[in-house]
Amino acid sequence: MNAMIHDHSNETADETPDGDRYIVPGLIRGLAILEGFSENNPEQSLAAIARDTGLPRATVFRLLHTLEAAGYLERNPARKTFRLGNRVLRLGYNALSGRSLREIATPILERLRDETGCTTHLVVREGTDVVYIARCLGAARVDSLIGVGTRLPAHATVIGRTLLSHMPLADVVRLYDGYDFPIYTDATPADLGALVAQLEADRPQRSLASWGYFEPDVASIAAPVRNRAGIAEAAVNAICSLEAYDRAVLEDIVRVRVENAAEEISVALGYQG
């Protein structure tokens, strides 16, 4: 660790592009790495990044490790590559486009609520949790524990499974290696093997429907929201009490509307799939 700190502290103002002694070269290098990712180049290896930036491999390794630890990059162990993490993608949409993910999604969630009478949500994944960042209360307010800012275990919720099922399997295994799985209902995966089996069944579906999966008296439909690069950056859902809809109506009609809402948000984010 001392060697890493020493490596950056020895750099002088003369080593910065414009000779400004207040510039932090390591930050400039990290930003240059992030800028190298694009729609046409969504994943890169350490060797490719070192080649493109002209930086020593050891320096690139330290920068990649730092960016991954901070959530700005995600590693794909199977392919030994890196891609942008949700944290930098949210920064991009929030700051650069001038419209946050929440701002884009809220009117669509409101319309979905009005069409279905359900309470609607938008979530993002942070580690093994999902975080609720928007909520539109339905006409018949469901008795739910969820509010804006709520964090729930991704493995135990249908909206969390929606995001996990669109991650590479190797990333899921790495994320949950050694994880202590809390159990909420009889349907909650109790270990990594059960979670992987569930996600493999979930993966081909455009959306997921649950009948008391996390909260016993609550039904939920969830669908992924994709960004410009095609990554499932967020997910939306519509929830209601089990008595609000016949199950066939929920899964055949409400489900389509949830899928359409997720697709509309995705298109607004630049997804062209």
End-to-end separation: 43 Å
Coarse structural class:
alpha+beta
- Distinct helical segment count: 10
Number of strands: 9
Q: Rg, please? A: 21 Å
Explain this structure.
The chain is α+β, with helices and mostly antiparallel strands and 273 residues long. It has ten helices and nine strands. It is globular, with a radius of gyration of 21 Å. 32% of the residues are buried.
Keywords:
273 residues, alpha+beta, disordered N terminus, 3-stranded antiparallel sheet, 6-stranded antiparallel sheet, 10 helices
In short:
With about 270 residues, this protein is α+β, with helices and mostly antiparallel strands.
Produce the secondary structure layout.
Blueprint: H1 2-9, H2 25-35, E1 43-44, H3 46-53, H4 57-69, E2 73-76, E3 81-84, H5 86-96, H6 101-116, E4 119-126, E5 129-136, E6 151-153, H7 158-164, H8 169-176, H9 192-202, E7 208-211, E8 218-226, E9 232-241, H10 247-268
Helix pairs in contact: 3-4, 6-10
